[in-house]
Hints:
By secondary structure, the protein is mainly α. It folds into 2 domains: 4-187 and 295-325, HUPs (Rossmann fold), CATH 3.40.50.620; 207-289, Tyrosyl-Transfer RNA Synthetase (Orthogonal Bundle). The protein has 14 helices and 5 strands. The protein has helices at residues 17-30, 42-49, 56-70, 87-96, 101-105, 108-116, 125-128, 130-139, 153-170, 209-217, 238-246, 250-261, 267-293, 296-325, and strands spanning 4-9, 35-40, 78-81, 145-148, 178-181. Strands 1-2-3 form a 3-stranded parallel β-sheet. The protein has a two-stranded parallel sheet with strand order 4-5. Helix 3 crosses helix 13, helix 4 packs across helix 8 and helix 10 (209-217) packs antiparallel against helix 13 (267-293). The longest helix is centred in the last third of the chain and has 30 residues, at 296-325. The model has no long low-confidence stretch (mean pLDDT 93).
Amino acid sequence: MAQRVFSGMRPTGKLHLGHLAGALTNWVRLQEDYECFYSIVDWHALMSDYADSSTIRSNCSEVLLDWLAAGLDPEKCIIFVQSHVPQHAELHLALSMVTPLGWLQRNPTYKEQIINIQNRDLSTYAFLGYPVLMAADILLYKAEIVPVGEDQSAHLEISREMARRFNSFFGDILPEPQIMLTPTPKVPGTDGRKMSKSYGNSINIADHPDEMWQKIRTMITDPARERRTDPGEPEKCPVWDIHKVFNDDEEEKREIAHGCRTAGIGCVDCKKKLMNHVNRVMAPIRERRAFYEGRPDLLQSILREGAVRAGAAARKTMDEVIAAIGFVPRG
């Protein structure tokens, strides 16, 4: 039987090329060889957006469209919304009973976000305890593998610790998930920083080609190239980083790098070449997105069927958890 994989994304808006290169391309590969559960984790979105949850529903639809556009196939993987499977909340509660408060308070991501996110009140139990819900998401399906980038591996270690602690009290119920470290290509935004919706620098999967070109055309480049005749260094240029991800023509990349260093090619020409490759990669993605955009009933059917399939696995785990704890069995 194929090993089980779990991963999820918060519905905070349309996904961008960083999501495509960093996670979705890998998820599409995994669905061919593993039993994959992919969840739109809307409870996680509520942790930071509780003061205004009006966009969560529409954001779930946008994430679903981008997933399907990228190539996730509901015939090959299970796609569902977290809140449609109530056992996520149940296991979260069970795990919270045995999770030491110090584990959560020492979480470096929690400390960082409390300092850096100033426009929202994050002094809530749920925000402190989000690693508990994250662990519940994974452990509920007894996922053997969780694909993460290296910067996220510490989060998964917390889930492994929670499984060990729960099992120490109630028996060997929740297997510890294994980390599948996946390459995380550098995909900078239009301002050179990490591509992020919160920075307003993202190039979205759903962008029209003209809109995408306008964003790429105005991207910052090597600051040394103030004029067309100034030589540059590709490794200092955000546009070159995106070339590395989307341009698979090695000979052309060598020519571009040489042209940049000798001022033999201008930045606009470099960006036009990049756009050609982005369009090549995005063409089938745009076609799939257009197909699903016009079929809301099909989208609802995919989520409904996904919740049924995920729910069957989740109920089995929770029945075991309830029996292990010693609660009265459900009828």
